[in-house]
Amino acid sequence: MLLKEYRICMPLTVDEYRIGQLYMISKHSHEQSDRGEGVEVVQNEPFEDPHHGNGQFTEKRVYLNSKLPSWARAVVPKIFYVTEKAWNYYPYTITEYTCSFLPKFSIHIETKYEDNKGSNDRIFDNEAKDLEREVCFIDIACDEIPERYYKESEDPKHFKSEKTGRGQLREGWRDSHQPIMCSYKLVTVKFEVWGLQTRVEQFVHKVVRDILLIGHRQAFAWVDEWYDMTMDEVREFERATQEATNRKIGVFPPAISISSIPLLPSSVRSAPSSAPSTPLSTDAPEFLSVPKDRPRKKSAPETLTLPDPEKRATLNLPGIHSSDKPCRPKLE
């Protein structure tokens, strides 16, 4: 298990980011999706928790085989997806990722939002007070992102919002900018497979960090698109975008629609489930199946012919040795 805490500051307020977060997730998922790969929304509906109150529950499938490193693609099936389950009780959220093909793999993320510059060192005292972890600050303006994801229009050093007047952030902006908020994320990655655990957990944390950096940059760079939206309007945008995304990746309705199954009582579903999802098929992955046309190995004759007892008696004549060639008896 590898635990890290990420702190990402934004030139927004917590109330503003509630809309921006929903808008960014929907638009980002749509942009990153293509036929056969991307984010399929399985379920998205209101949910009530006895402790956290009213919230939203979502379940998604993230298809990402081509985005895996080559060593990972070599051991997973081509149809590979990660299940995301999220409980959004803003300003507190829980997100879990599991994979039916890798039952010992999971990511658990707890997020809290506060109007400060990342200065609350005790924010996760109830969740991980005695757990050792690395604290990583992510700067949306100055930290480098993978080159393939860079867009000048989404660079906070160049972007300036017309509706809010915020933007063109410079080094050290977190020390003086107002307003400012922080996303605190406690991320636990588990991959309990001997020989691969450290490598996989470190790789997953690198991916998580890149996603957090890109997503928060986009949320701010798209602020003029969502700033005037109400909660009802962003929910409608979310619904329409999710439908378009499902069509984009070529999702066909399953035989049993998960979204049509009624929610269980909140007392039953209050805690996040960490059990792996049930795969769509019970068939073994292709690379684990026995080839149908494999030639049969012929290490022994297919039939065994025993000598005829009558012929053996006929051939067993005086003067004839076992090493001599057998011959047909002369007919009288």
From TrEMBL:
<feature type="compositionally biased region" description="Basic and acidic residues">
    <location>
        <begin position="322"/>
        <end position="332"/>
    </location>
</feature>
<dbReference type="GO" id="GO:1901611">
    <property type="term" value="F:phosphatidylglycerol binding"/>
</dbReference>
<comment type="similarity">
    <text>Belongs to the PtdIns transfer protein family. PI transfer class IIB subfamily.</text>
</comment>
<dbReference type="GO" id="GO:1990050">
    <property type="term" value="F:phosphatidic acid transfer activity"/>
</dbReference>
<feature type="region of interest" description="Disordered">
    <location>
        <begin position="268"/>
        <end position="332"/>
    </location>
</feature>
<feature type="compositionally biased region" description="Low complexity">
    <location>
        <begin position="268"/>
        <end position="285"/>
    </location>
</feature>
<dbReference type="GO" id="GO:0035091">
    <property type="term" value="F:phosphatidylinositol binding"/>
</dbReference>
<keyword id="KW-0813">Transport</keyword>
<dbReference type="InterPro" id="IPR001666">
    <property type="entry name" value="PI_transfer"/>
</dbReference>
<dbReference type="GO" id="GO:0005829">
    <property type="term" value="C:cytosol"/>
</dbReference>
<keyword id="KW-0446">Lipid-binding</keyword>
<dbReference type="Pfam" id="PF02121">
    <property type="entry name" value="IP_trans"/>
</dbReference>
<comment type="function">
    <text>Catalyzes the transfer of phosphatidylinositol (PI) and phosphatidic acid (PA) between membranes. Binds PA derived from the phospholipase D signaling pathway and among the cellular PA species, preferably binds to the C16:0/16:1 and C16:1/18:1 PA species.</text>
</comment>
<dbReference type="GO" id="GO:0007165">
    <property type="term" value="P:signal transduction"/>
</dbReference>
<dbReference type="InterPro" id="IPR055261">
    <property type="entry name" value="PI_transfer_N"/>
</dbReference>
<dbReference type="GO" id="GO:0070300">
    <property type="term" value="F:phosphatidic acid binding"/>
</dbReference>
<protein>
    <recommendedName>
        <fullName>Cytoplasmic phosphatidylinositol transfer protein 1</fullName>
    </recommendedName>
</protein>
<dbReference type="GO" id="GO:0005654">
    <property type="term" value="C:nucleoplasm"/>
</dbReference>
<dbReference type="GO" id="GO:0008526">
    <property type="term" value="F:phosphatidylinositol transfer activity"/>
</dbReference>
<keyword id="KW-0445">Lipid transport</keyword>
<dbReference type="InterPro" id="IPR023393">
    <property type="entry name" value="START-like_dom_sf"/>
</dbReference>
<feature type="domain" description="Phosphatidylinositol transfer protein N-terminal">
    <location>
        <begin position="1"/>
        <end position="243"/>
    </location>
</feature>
